[in-house]
Design brief:
Length: 492
């Protein structure tokens, strides 16, 4: 076997091991029996340690060294694969096997404690586990030693090349513009007609499965299940999505499913022959979120989307929608109104939810905020930026799963993803003829084709910033997002 082929084979093996860890974690959040958490914690720790040991082994180093000897003769694509593999080997080698196993074990424990604390509205019971997750992140950053501070390291884990300075440059003007927009378009009325009505979960699921199938999701290589918090995990060959159902809030399951389908379509569009190496890997979580948010917002929160789907929705919920006009229905879908829950929020306020989490994460890692003070700081920022205060910690600081798994630095990816999605949408609209008419007809193939050709098929050849420049010809900027939202919701 040639040296480069051997490297690609090993990288595929590493990805296979990682996928097994991911499958155990997916099952932990979806199917695990209620008293099996202790065993699952041990399983995750052991499999993570095995995967880490293989990715830092002397035999893998020798393969990298052999390929490196022929570096000058490698193709441009093979150099990209090698450089990425070498970089991640050097980083992983600095992290002890014991730490990798301990981190996986503590994350599994923290997740279960978060589920219990959220259900009981008991932040104090979760606080020690959250403190432990922060310390684990700092410990890992200390082993690697590649960044000036631990939070910058965490951001880089989800988006290579992204840093707090770039995020601050984008978020500062975006936050000011969105607060101004919010003051001009907030709806003071209730605006949600379905308050007090019940939409059976079974019928919600029938409808949303029709929508995501139309979008292009391949159920032969993926599935949809239920979990406490919606997420997407796996690979293009076996992608796992989850959603949740509230009978008094039917849009939660629909839009969370459309969001997760955007993630799934990205994974299903990556080149399968390069699975495990840079060319078959996504370009970071900001780009990943741009794919999910583009489908969720630019496509599914449009008038054109509901011009096609409203009649089918009324078939599913004839009793609930009896006497509700199309205008009232659309107003309920498009309402701009601050609410405590991030995943249910509208396009304008969503990014303010992210700014709050970003500010809190920075303060936690800088030592300016202690975990015990997190609920009060959370509520204070919600009052300042959104003019509301969560009624409980369950709908406040405990609402998101991310911190229970140590995913600090991930939240900025959502807002950067929104920024990228708006910039991509500008280019897509100029390239795809009559795209709104196609959405009005329930046709999404041309949108998916455009994304597959320009985003999915290129893997991780580029960083998020470079990919945006490659596709749109412009530097990453918050202005297209501000322009899009102001044009859609602004009232002068």
């Amino acid at each position: 076997m040639g040296k480069m082929l051997e490297l690609k084979s090993v990288l595929r093996r590493h990805a296979t091991l990682d996928s097994l860890v991911g499958l155990l974690d997916w099952d932990h959040q979806v199917n695990l029996p209620p008293h099996s958490h202790e065993l699952r914690t041990e399983q995750l720790a052991v499999t993570t340690e095995i995967a880490h040991r293989e990715k830092t082994s002397d035999s893998y180093r020798r393969i990298l060294d052999d390929v490196g000897e022929d570096y000058d003769s490698l193709s441009e694509e093979d150099r990209l694969i090698f450089d990425h593999a070498r970089k991640h080997f050097e980083k992983s080698k600095k992290i002890p096997n014991e730490f990798a196993a301990r981190k996986a074990e503590k994350q599994a424990q923290a997740y279960q404690k978060w589920v219990e604390a959220r259900e009981a509205d008991d932040f104090d019971s979760f606080a020690p586990f959250l403190e432990e997750q922060i310390e684990l992140c700092k410990e890992e950053a200390g082993y690697v030693g590649s960044h000036s501070d631990a939070y910058a390291y965490m951001i880089d884990q989800f988006d290579e090349g992204m840093d707090p300075e770039t995020i601050d440059r984008l978020f500062g003007p975006m936050g000011e513009a969105l607060q101004d927009l919010l003051s001009r378009c907030t709806c003071e009325e209730e605006g949600v007609f379905f308050s007090g009505l019940k939409f059976p979960a079974e019928k919600q699921e029938v409808f949303l499965r029709e929508v995501i199938t139309k979008m292009g999701f391949d159920f032969n290589h993926g599935r949809l299940d239920r979990s406490v918090h919606p997420f997407c995990a796996g690979t293009g060959q076996d992608i796992r999505m989850t959603t949740r159902f509230f009978e008094d809030n039917p849009l939660d399951s629909l839009y969370s499913s459309i969001h997760e389908t955007g993630h799934a379509l990205y994974e299903q569009g990556l080149p399968p022959e390069d699975w495990g190496n840079r060319l078959g890997t996504h370009a970071g979580m900001a780009v990943h979120e741009s794919q999910s948010r583009l489908w969720e917002n630019q496509v599914a929160r449009s008038v054109e989307f509901w011009e096609f789907w409203e009649s089918r929705y009324r078939e599913c919920f004839a009793e609930q929608l009896n006497g509700i006009s199309s205008k009232d229905w659309l107003n309920s879908v498009m309402i701009i109104k601050p609410i405590p829950i991030r995943v249910d929020s509208d396009e304008v306020t969503y990014n303010l939810h992210i700014l709050i989490r970003y500010e809190l994460e920075k303060r936690l890692f800088a030592g300016d905020l202690m975990v015990k003070g997190l609920p009060a700081a959370w509520n204070s920022l919600y009052e300042r930026l959104l003019g509301i205060c969560p009624g409980s910690d369950a709908e406040g600081v405990l609402q998101d799963v991310h911190w229970s798994s140590g995913a600090f630095g991930y939240f900025p990816s959502y807002a950067v993803g929104n920024i990228i999605s708006a910039q991509l949408w500008e280019s897509l609209e100029s390239s795809v003829q009559n795209v709104k008419d196609q959405i009005r007809s329930g046709e999404y193939a041309s949108i998916l084709k455009w994304l597959r050709e320009r985003i999915h098929s290129v893997g991780a050849r580029y960083s998020a910033k470079d990919l945006v420049k490659e596709v749109t010809g412009k530097d990453l900027s918050e202005q297209p997002l501000v322009k899009y939202l102001d044009g859609k919701y602004g009232k002068g």
